[in-house]
Predict the structure.
Amino acid sequence: MRLTSRPQASSRCSHCRHRESVRGDGMRYSVLGTGLIGTAVAHALAKSGRDTAVWNRTISRAKPLAKVGVSVHADIGSVLDAADAVVLTVLDLDSALETLDGHFAALEDKAVINLMSGTPALAREMAQRLEKVGARYLDGTIQCYPSDIGAAEALINLSGDRAVWDAHKDALVAVAGRSTYVGEDPGAASILDAALAGTFYTAGLGAFCEALAFLRDSNIDPTRPEVALDYWLDLFRAQAMQLVDCVAKENFATSEATLAVYLAAVRQWRDTMLAAGQRGNIMAAAQQNLETADAAGYGSSSFAAQVLTISSPVNRFDQICEFP
């Protein structure tokens, strides 16, 4: 059934609204931003039977959601008033701060759940600003594609106010089946996002694109069985888990290839790429990290020892989060 109207938040006392936000039942969700992610999130909330409203700067992009029972608002003030929990799916946290500018007071007694990327510092700033107006904040980062939203295997990492997580866990699991609370520090989800979705996944795929470009320009079809991509993908997973174990145990000894051996090979591989007209930017970064570790005296240690010199003390986060 299409939702054409909602009871206004002003018709209920502040105490009742706060009690419901903690209890987690009878919740009304307002989604700000109906791009690909916002549309998918609103659709998943509505499909799960939750009272859902949306706002978008360009309202025509939000109107199709009315067909699945979502209430579409042209005014940001009205959509905030229609919510017990506000879900932010605008471009990023900078955009969210801009969107909410002048409307923070309307968030009193509400839960605010961000699902878009930002920095740990911005997440903490948002939490502080919301706390000042009596709102509670949960910061999240979506670790999947829009088409995965609503699926059991979809992942969202969330951090911040534990009470918000407890009250809205079921709704968030309806949006992404593997929604996970990772800690009370509002910046924790953003740290995981930058480390895994950014440095590992995106940069890793970028390195793979460098390899594919090199093969393509060398007239080698990567789908040929003899290229053995399945071997390299399996080996990568095994070695990645071994690296995790080494770092967790602070054990950087090796009886196999040392960091210096890897460095010598990387220099040869990059020379090969440069000679073939490739830029090899990601390979150059890998070489620089290895050279820094080698210069610091870790040449006889394992490949994992470079983690000891990659971090720059002057650039480290002023607050390191602890995960549960």
